[in-house]
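Continuing the series of single-chain predictions for the mutant panel. This is the parent chain; the variants come on the following pages.
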Amino acid sequence: MQKIESLDLFRGIAGYGVAVCHFYSYLFESSNMEYISFVFVDLFFVLSGFVLYPQLNRVYKNKKNLKIFYMRRWMRTLPIFFIALICFSIIFRNFSYDTLKYLFFIQKMYPDFLVTDYMVVAWTLSVEEWFYLLFPICLVLLNKFDIIKIFIFFLTLIYILKLIFLLNYNDASFYRTGTFLRLDAILFGVIIANNYEIIRKAKYIPPILIFLAFVFFYYQNFFNRDSGVTQFAYVILIQLISIFALIFFININKIINFKYLNIIYSLLANQTYSVYLFHFIFIYFIKVYNLENINFIFFYYILLLFTSSSLVFYFIEKTILHLRPSYDN
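Parent structure:
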């Protein structure tokens, strides 16, 4: 599968979309922006699955690639996460059992496991890391079966787990953040990549996406009731939006020539991981020092994010990425 330039823009929109929404939702108590941030987070999940598919396929075809897969994924995600966790723990003066739960990505294994959720963005990393750990092993163990059948099997298994949780618990927010309840979000991206040639020919994506966005905004009050059933439906709606948004960006790549703007999009895409992990630190200091009323504070916020994330990428992430092993076949 060749590089799809428009997906760099997609990643950049997702990363800065979360940061902008959280800026307004936490500093100015905009509930609408908080709900919109849920969609941007799911864009990350489905995109992650899509770009991971070629590596997962290598593992499926040759189990010797399993170690390389883990090394590449963990070198990409863990060092910066550990730095972010230390920063959050220092700022919030919280080195406790909660810190260990974050460290091992178990904080959202079941509802109310954390005493203090001081690194609120970390739940998405738990979903990603457990997917990285479990799914490649399953591909190796089940490689006698067709790969798409394996995808469908685990997708079915996850939805059975969701229904079991729905029948036994009424924790609405956990449907969106529970680690094993959200693995399907990444799996959808994998399935899209597996059917890439069909997806490239998909029609009527823009009107479907517009319709889903209309439902999302118009029925916001309904979906955000404190009810497990409505949250269950809400997460499905968000996933549908993220799926069709990804397909839309895949398809516009063949309509719009992105190569002349690719330097800008690549720069934004490179920043998104650190933007996502660290943006709450800037929001925290703006709130603590009562800076939200300063003129152009949003401009300064974005400028700080852009500058700090660029420095993190070029001086830390890029160095680590060059050390990652390559696949032999």
